[in-house]
Specification:
By secondary structure, this protein is an alpha+beta fold. Helices cover 41% and strands 20% of the residues. It has eight helices and five strands; from the N terminus they run αββαααβββαααα. It has helices at residues 9-15, 33-39, 43-46, 58-75, 129-139, 144-151, 155-168, 174-181; strands spanning 19-24, 27-31, 77-85, 91-100, 110-116. The radius of gyration is 18 Å and the shape is globular.
């Protein structure tokens, strides 16, 4: 019988088929090749960089960071689908999951995974930062009331943004809008 092989966790991290990184206070401290390739950066350019570089706008970075904290405090982990930005400024849908390593401070240290959804769900309409945020929450199946509570807007304001999204995506119903956002129905 052969002796057990040593598991090389550093190689596993580097060769994982999805983007992975370790962060401290929303700064990338380690990332794998898949993450760098997905976002179009050299790995060295991401090490020490703020996650802000991966967001379409600084405001989206701040709002998402604030939205994550209560969820991670309650669950210990976080997952969503959102529009992110590559080094060449191209926007794309991305599934993001993470776990805080310090239960008292979710941003203190964490492990994050990123999966590029652009092959299944292209970004097909020009959206404002707030529309991107609301679109991501609609895709999660959240109602206008839940979205309003989560991002501190009135339900009426969320409905206004939903109506603008429906117009931009030529959707006649909310469910058609979600299907179009998910890329199930091509425009």
């Amino acid at each position: 019988m052969n002796p057990p092989q040593t598991i090389d966790f550093a190689s596993i991290f580097q060769l994982a088929p999805i983007g992975m990184c370790v962060s401290q206070n929303r700064i990338i401290h380690a990332c794998n090749d898949a993450l760098a390739a997905m976002f179009g950066y050299q790995k060295d350019a991401l090490i020490g960089a703020s996650f802000q570089a991966l967001y379409p706008t600084p405001d989206e970075f701040e709002r998402t960071g604030a939205r994550i904290v209560p969820i991670m405090n309650a669950k210990g982990s976080y997952s969503d689908e959102r529009i992110m930005k590559r080094a060449n400024q191209e926007l794309f849908w991305c599934h993001v999951s993470g776990r805080g390593l310090d239960k008292k401070d979710p941003h203190a240290a964490g492990i994050w995974t990123f999966e590029d959804l652009s092959a299944k769900r292209p970004v097909s309409a020009e959206l404002t930062p707030r529309e991107r945020e609301i679109a991501a929450l609609l895709v999660e199946g959240k109602t206008s009331k839940l979205i309003a509570r989560q991002i501190a807007l009135s339900p009426r304001t969320v409905e206004m943004h939903r109506a603008k999204l429906m117009k931009k995506f030529s959707a006649s119903t909310s469910s058609e809008l979600v299907h179009k956002l998910l890329g199930i129905i091509r425009q």
